[in-house]
User: Fold these one by one.
Assistant:
Number 1:
Amino acid sequence: MIEFEHVVKEYNGVSAVDDISLELPAGKICVFIGPSGCGKTTSLRLINRMIEPSSGTIRLDGTPVSKIRAEELRRGIGYVIQSVGLLPHMSVRENIGIVPRLLGWDKHKRDTRADELLELIGLSPGAYRDKLPHELSGGEAQRVGVARALAADPPVLLMDEPFGAVDPLGREVLQREFLSLNRELKKTVVFVTHDLDEAIRLGDRIVLMRSGKVVQDDIPERILGAPRNEFVREFVGADRALKRLSCFTVESHMHKAAFLDRALLQNGRPPEDMQVNGTGMLWIVDAGEVLVGMCRRSGGKWGDVREVRAEELGVTTVSSLRDALSRLLGRGLKAVPVLSDDHRLVGEVRLTDIEAVNQSDGYV
Amino acid sequence: MSSSSQPKLSARERFRVRMIMGSADVVGPVLLVVGVAALLWFAANPAQLEALLRMIFPGRRGYLYERASLMTLLGEHLVLVAVSGSAAAVVGISLGVLVTRSVGRDFLGIVRDLSSLAQTFPPVAVLALAVPALGFGFKPAVVALFVYSILPVINNTISGLEAVPPDIVEASRGMGMTPVQILLFTELPVAARVIIAGVRTSVVINIGTATIGAVVGAGGLGAIIISGLVRDNYALVFTGAVSAAVLAFSADWCFARLERSFYIARSDR
């Protein structure tokens, strides 16, 4: 757990951080967001003592960080910055091994760990370990930056706009990967961004800041659904209803889906006496429960089975309702299939589920 | 550079490959080896040297310097250059590092100005000033050469270190490196190429300038050149000048190779 207690940071009499008190719970992703100059990056850098506070105390699991030698503190906290900052004369493997090397691990242990982490972030160790940073794409470099921060398995990760320099498409991929990565690793993450969508997608908690002060510190649903004042309302924007859908995962709102093994089709159609509830969609799967087709019942009759490509049509359990809505509208369907990572059908999300979300809490 | 075709090589091995590939033009090394071999052979065989000089400058007397052999002069010259050059490299790099640290930053301007000023002094003038303090011989020559060749080292060290991207210094600090570790693991390796280039310039200038050491009796190839000038004996001038040139070319080539083995900053690529 990270605690801020009346933390102030002044530069020449101007407060960059103005009396902040916060408790960031362990194992959660906490996003600092706000307009530029609001003090979000300063707050982040205070945690690993890249900057010293003018007054106030920051505690890491109960110990004031000022009581720990700065270098030692930083070796125990993962740090990822926007420009990545891979050392250009070192290979990917050497870069990942920097903190372990500072901690005195032997070479064999460092190299094994580097390969393990490359595997974890989805880069093949054989192809990547000996590359130099300039041979990597922006997204790859950013992944290596995350791997480097994770090298010594620190409990806390500080990320300062880590995906800011990556193109929007790549950024979404990185966000998704990071989210599922941290589901596994359960690091305490402090994440700085100015991108609200990113904050909503990643944050378990959002701390909205302005001129060095915390304006609202809440779960994403409430930042969007119950903005505390005009500033927050303006910051989250008019499309907050849509944005709010990003707060919910498909997993928590999906239904059981009607499905049929491909082997049971008769003349390419489901048996006529087969009935389904709900939206009238029937998903066709193969012997391994992998989605291969779909069929609609209309006017009491089954239509033709349409072959589909699972990854194009379906969403995954960790997708947001916003993704699901976009698929629904894009395909003109009343339901989309929910798939596991290996494309097995696990359920469906219906248009009515999404409507229900925005109508709950009396929020429209 | 397409390195994807050689995925088996480690980063260091690839640097080595690049070094060897860089010397793929064989003219340089061959000329160098021939030049150095010829120089040493003639130095070891004064009779052959005399025969050669007789061919180039016919109809004179006294083709050889009678006070010392060419081998001795070469040795003296190399010692002069090695002592003053390595002192300039060590002191220059140290000063460059010092004034780019936060504690020494106040001295950055002064050190830059002083080293530029030192370069504007003619070496002979430095010699003239050094002789009263240090007497004749080896010492004042080393001091003059040191003062004269420190500028490129300081300048390149400062430029090299200042060109290290701030984000990688920030990242190094954020990972928990101490200031000394940041200098050793991050700043010096990234700046190494530029720093070595400074040492290269310094040494090459030094080899040429060392010939004036003879004025204060420090020996070296300058002795034979000055003696030749005084006696209007071009064979002697020629021997000294060509020898110094061969030394300078070889040193330049060796440092160029050393330089190439270090990391190349992105802007140079």
Number 2:
Amino acid sequence: MALQAIAFYLMAAVTLASALAVVSSKNPVHSVLFLIAAFFSAAGLFVLLGAEFLAMLLVVVYVGAVAVLFLFVVMMLDVDFAELRQGFARYMPLGGLIAGGLAIEMIIVSTTVATKGAARLNENPMASGTAGPGIPNAEAIGRVLYTQYVYFFQAAGMVLLVAMIGAIVLTLRHKPGVKRQIIMDQVLRTPANGMRMVSPKPGEGIDA
Amino acid sequence: MDFWNTPIGWTLWTVGQILLITVPLLLVVAFVIYGDRKIFAAVQLRKGPNVVGPFGLLQSFADLGKFLIKELIVPAGADKFVFLLAPLISVTLALGSWAAMPLAPGWVVANINVGILYLFAVSSMGVYGIIMGGWASNSKYPFLGALRSAAQMVSYEVSIGFVIITVILLSGTMNLTDIVVKQGGGFWNWNILGGAGLKNLPLALVMIPMGVIFFISGLAETNRPPFDLPEAESELVAGYAIEYGSTPYMLFYLAETSNIILMSGLMAVLFLGGWQAPWPTHYLDGLTHSGWSWLASLHGLLIFAFKTLFVFFMNAMVRSVVPRYRYDQLMRLGWKVFLPTSLVAVALVAGWRVYGGIG
């Protein structure tokens, strides 16, 4: 237990400190790197909770893919952050309001969960065989996700699919007059149709 | 045994296990680098390293000494902290991923239920070492190399993910040890042939191409030739590693080689039965139930090492004989060939699991 406590406080401290550094560091690339550190230590907290499947998904999806694209974009952008900071006083009240609202929401949620327990559709997961000591939590999640919550799950999948198609449609552009590579032609090219034997006489050259 | 259950004892025990894996791994890396150079040389009818020690066997150790005593130079415009952090991240992730690798029956540091996802997550984080190094160097060629590697690694992770899903579907578990255990009893039970002997043999038609895709994606994921565009010397000098020298460069190189061995080992675990021998091993049953179980483990370790080195040999041969890809061809291969193929394979394997009648 002592080790778990040490690990918890260590990772919680790292999460909070790097979350703070995300908003306070001067260099945007450093902000993204701190964001990655925050994701990673949050994954560590998930592992401590026994939710190793969620922890790995957090690392694969957010750290491994989303944050790489973030980093990609931020490194390429040439943003003058000194200029951006000038509006700080103007946006301060609105930002403070949103932050306050979120803080109140989180306090309400966490106190409710702490006093009354989390709300669940499945009143007794142990009895229905969806959760228990012998079942790995990837399997436990799968059992409820594909039975009770299957419609929500499918709906979420549809939303993602539509978003993906939308992104492709918005960025797909066929400009006329642009030379494109046709891979099939390149693959099918053989010495017979790609080469021509000529024997020019001295001083004549070849007219292509 | 009580001492080992106290926090201090547990920590010592785990650290001991980690050292027991890391130290031999570093030795293996040294000889694998030597072997890689020898194979490369043999293909080109050269001798390769042959001066330091007998047959040049100590070449890697000489290189190690050379790297360690060189001066560390940080470029003037570099982001010093990130510049030095990048190789450390690379090497930490490369060594950390060995924690979940089952080396022999019962020989694994962390036998976690989501072992395969852990390896996938750690290898997907490997891109940060390269992209941070390229950016922090504050120079154009390293940055171009970093951008290329980020795009390349993210692209090939997708197809690796789908290939891994086909293996998970066959095995019904994400625990690497269980995946290996299920492939026991002979080479006809290996996942590359469908995973369950004659009953699943039709799946070999799907799984053999999946194995090939995994192998090729592994090459791309570890920036090995013919996909070594992040460090393509003919156009980017040395890619993300231009500004590095001395120990940080050595750490990058160590991480890369360790990742290559990891990918070879993962290929062995996922498709070639890991530590399981290609023949039925009933003669080990007596050992397993007596005090001699470590002999059975050693037997498994040797087989696993042989398979891993075989895959690595293929890797080195590809490096020697295949010319480098063009960048657009690389992207096309990843997104337009591997991704649809592996997606169809996931559907086929899932369909077989439900309708093929094999539980």
Number 3:
Amino acid sequence: MEDTLVIAGRRISSRFLLGTGKFASYTLMKEAIEACGAHIVTVALRRVDKGSKDENILDFIPAGRILMPNTSGARNADEAIRLARLARAAGCGEWVKVEIISDNKFLLPDNAETIKATDVLAKEGFIVMPYFNPDLMDARRLKDAGAASIMPLGSPIGTNKGLRTRELVSILVEEIDLPVIVDAGLGLPSQAAEAMELGCDAVLVNTAVATADDPVLMARAFAMAVEGGRSAWRARPASAGRYAKASSPLTGFLR
Amino acid sequence: MGFYDSLEKFEGFDLESFFKKVSDDDILRAINNTSIDELDLLSLLSPQAGRHLEAMAQKSQELTLRNFGRVIYLYAPLYLGNFCDNECLYCGFKRDNPIERRKLSLPEVEKEAEAIAATGIRHILILTGESRQQTPVSYLKDCVLALKNYFSSISIEVYPLEAGEYKELIDVGVDGLTLYQETYDRSLYRQLHPRGPKSDFLYRLDAPDRAAGMKMRSLSIGALLGLADFRREAFFLGLHASYMEHRYPEVELSVSLPRFQRAAGDFSPVFPVGEAEFVQIMTALRLFLPRAGINISTREGHALRANLIGLGVTRMSAGSRTEVGGYALDGKTEGQFEVADKCGVSEVKEMIVKRGYQPVLKDWQAI
């Protein structure tokens, strides 16, 4: 049976999405993207400088990838909408990761503003991927607003703490008929595998890859873990139990 | 009222007695805990913590990497004018200094902008002395409108303004404010700023609140290190930053650590800060404020700046001229302070790359 991630009608060849901030160089970033085979890569529009004579980040995105600008820096829906429109006007395409943060200390997303921006941008034809706090009701609102997927956080951005929102995310997996992509907070490939085993459709990682000593190797490790976790989920794992299973069961005589 | 309440709370605090009681355990706990409080910050600023500098540096690097990645943001200052009504004892621009006074005409602003933009710089910080007559807000607005064609982000470092004036500047395209309290010691402040509008300690202290209240996107606050006991100054700077983070969570906050350098006039620093102490201040503030940017300007030399990369710094000025007309004009004036890192933007970029970091020229644009 084919198992391909589809978002907004597009077939996505990898369930591992990579963010492009925090790398020591664009060359290293490019190598990491190539090594892990990420199909969707996010770029902060605030960093894109098309008029620059200097290195331009967009020139280092390998061919054949879906470029997904994010609205990093937006403090409310209005700013996110303006950033998304600027990205489209700059030729960055229709995909946008809505990221609205009005708290710089914890970098937690503002769900109410995110829903507003998703609504406006989806109506304008954007493929909207909102980053949000994993709340079931808000996830439904995002779906109604036209989101193409939902991207709950695993733990706050950059903390590398893993899937601390596990219970809430698992509810979203069960209830929301959209791809669920864990975004932010995953620090190790095992944590990405955990999200995939839970039934998430994909994960997005940046800090853990970009700030590893060997970002290229780490990118590959994440991609492998995501694939492994996905296969495990599809294989329908045996249940874990507290007690050993007796090889001579007590009720064997009933058969 | 604003940060003043917290300042008052700790103003009478007996630092000396506290430092006497700080143990190695206190310092190690402050280094290893994930979240530290004001007293932990004080422990990290204690003389004894100098023995744990390597551990502080390691933790500082870890936090900086996680929060900011392997990047250093670059910007350049542009001095628009050096007219000033103040008499700050330590400043090259003080009213009575017999230096040439000048302000840039708009065509001159554009010439300077062209020269800076040609180096690749995209974030500009504009500065003036305090003269509402010579460099009024209307003049600043005209300059901002001219500079928008050259830069993606414009910050101001000018005299403290009224809230409505900050709003006016935000509306024409300013997104950042840099404002140093110079010293958090009120009585010393009075001595150092005897006359002129700057003598009003509280009006200056409240200015970042006024700007943040008007939704200024980024704020940079600081103390001029060398004027007073640096442990006390760094402590109050940390408290001020923490207050701002808590009160205005949407603001992108950074702290600046300008060390006093020679300027026109005969003032010399009373409490010079050595390099090890400078590193202690920077790493202590990083541990206390993991999310705050840390600025190191060209007041520091090239070699030290190179060594500070990886220890907590996130933003640097590059290719700076502190004279009015310093980038492209003939007959430039004397600088506000002596630039120690005289390297051009490309050399600073090279140095950053050599340290395994990426120089980032654009991190915001007017939207």
Number 4:
Amino acid sequence: MIELNNVSKSFTLHNQGSAVIPVMEGATLSVAPGECVALTGASGAGKSTLMRVIYGNYLAASGQVMVGGVDVAQAEPREILALRRDTLGYVSQFLRVVPRVPTLEVVAEPLLAVGCDRQAALDKAAGLLARLNIPERLWTLSPTTFSGGEQQRVNIARGFAHDYPTMLLDEPTASLDVQNRETVLNLIEEAKARGAAIIGIFHDVGARERVCDREINVSDFTPGMAA
Amino acid sequence: MTPLLSVQNIRKTYGTRIGCTGVSFDLYPGEVMGIVGESGSGKSTLLNCLAGHLEPDGGRVVFDTRTDGPVDTVTMSEPERRMLGRTDWAFVHQHARDGLRMSVSAGGNIGERLMAVGDRHYGDIRDKAIDWLGRVEIEANRVDDRPTAFSGGMQQRLQIARNLVTGPRLVFMDEPTGGLDVSVQARLLDLLRGLVREMGLSAIIVTHDLAVVRLLADRLMVMKDGHVAESGLTDQVLDDPQHAYTQLLVSSVLQV
């Protein structure tokens, strides 16, 4: 489902003496349906960069980034938008939402975007929020005022609302208590069971060992840092 | 899929000064595109050329009309273009006063556009006007008040209601949230996003507020000195800007 072929990425800082910083070279990996792969490597090795290259918010300098039959490195903006709507989910570490939109709507939005019936979407969103222990009295409020942990859980609920065939998870269990961590790991296992191909960053070793089938050390793709 | 709007090599000069030049892009149904750049970069000139308010010196603006398919709006006759401006297109001005009739009631402002496309039943027009006031969160009992009695944010919402009542397919917006305080901005963003999704609108939004485009726009075009410096997916342009000017623009934003 996800296949990277010799992908490289560098940043050119035009306003800082045109410094060119190569951050990734020869990244090659593939993830099959139903498989969860963990990205490992020291901080700064390029785990998040690799995720962003796959999601399309970093532009790959060369190589192929195939997700569900679309080459993200070459695709038109609207092809990437369609891919993100239907095929590729992303749970980032930060919740970014329009102010004033109620939590329930925020979570249901990915479902409404794929044309799901409104009531069904809201029901599913409510189910996820309940599983993640967000008190019902908060559902009609905007998540912008929530605590860090609550925002994280809203973000996860939103990421798992639509059954994406491929998913990117950036530290999904960070800043969660034991019970919620368990719920998130269950959600990941359920996604795997329905055949989703998942790439994740987990600093939580226990979580990584439980849900991930194998590990890819990103340092192998870091120029000048090859182990 | 046919693009709703296909812009090909638009150029507009003011004497020897360049307004905008070499601008081309395709906008597809349901897409929202943001245009950012500093003042004087040509973004408003471009928007006005696209919307038919200014005549470009060169290039084509091909719109996929409901009846005749793709037509170049630059070469179409003035009455045809005006009809398009009342039906399939809408234009939200930066200053609500430019887009409203200040001496006509709020209901009249909304009703005028309906009458322009042939609605004649007073009761129906009034009902629709009240319905739209509700959608933009203006109390129904303000329907007979003039916009001069409204606050700036309300005027802006009224302008949006007036523009969207006829169910346009393409909305041009020039700094729609400029000059409004942040709480009103947030309300307006929420409103616009809801309308875009429910009505399947396409929109072109000119702004200098990067936070606004990140939330509203799928795609982004960055203008500098009348040229397109960079364009692409909104979060890609903002997170991984390729052009020197975009890097400067993105790194200059103050974090809140």
